Amino acid sequence: MRFVLQRLALFVVTLLGVSVLVFAALRVLPGDMAQLMAGMNSTPGRVASIRKSMGLDRPVFEQYTGWLWGLMHGDFGMSMLTGRAIAATVKTRASVTFPLIALGLLAAMVIGLVFGYEATMSHRPAVRVMFHLLALVGGAIPALWGGLLLILLFSKGMGIIGLFPSQGFPASGWRQPVQALSSLALPALTVGIIDGATLMRYTRSALTELLSSDVIAMTMASGYTRRQAMVRVGFRLALPQLVSVTGLLFASMVTGVMVIENLFALPGIGYGLVTDLGNRDLIAVQSELFMLAAFFLFVGFIVDVIHRLLDPRMRHPEQEG
Amino acid sequence: MLRGSHGPISFGVRFEKFRACHIIVVAVDPSGGEHLAYQLIMAKSAALEAVALPGDGEPWTGLARRNMASTQGAHDFDGATTNRGVSNRKRGNESLTEGHVPASMDPALQARARHELPTYDVWKSNHKSKLWVLAIMTMVVAMVVLAFVRPPARGGDGRPAGFQTQSAQRVSIGLKLAPANLDIRNQSGSSLDQVLIGNVYEGIVARDSNNKVVPALAKSWVVSNDALRYTFTMNTGMTFSNGDRLNAEDAAWSVNELVKRGYHDAQLLKHFESAKALDNSTLQIVLTAPYSDLLWVLTGRPGLVFDRHARYDMKTQAIGSGPYTVERFVPNSSLTLVANSRYRGPYRAKTASIVLHYYNDDNAAINALKSGDIQVLAPITQSLSGPFDRDSTNYDVKVGEGTDKFVLAMNCKGSKTSDVRIREAIRMAIDHKAIVASRGGVDRLMGGPIAPLDPGYEDLGARVSHTDVRRAAKLLKEAGYDRQNPLALRLEYANIYGTELGDQLRSQLREIGINLQVHVVEFSTWMQDVYTNKNYDLSLVDHNESHDFSQWADRGYYYNYDNPEVRNLYDQAMSATTEARKSELLQRAARVVSSDSPADWLFNYRITTVMRSGVSGFPINMNQALMPLWNVTFTHE
Question: Where is the ABC transmembrane type-1 domain (chain A) (predicted)?
Answer without folding.
Answer: 94-307
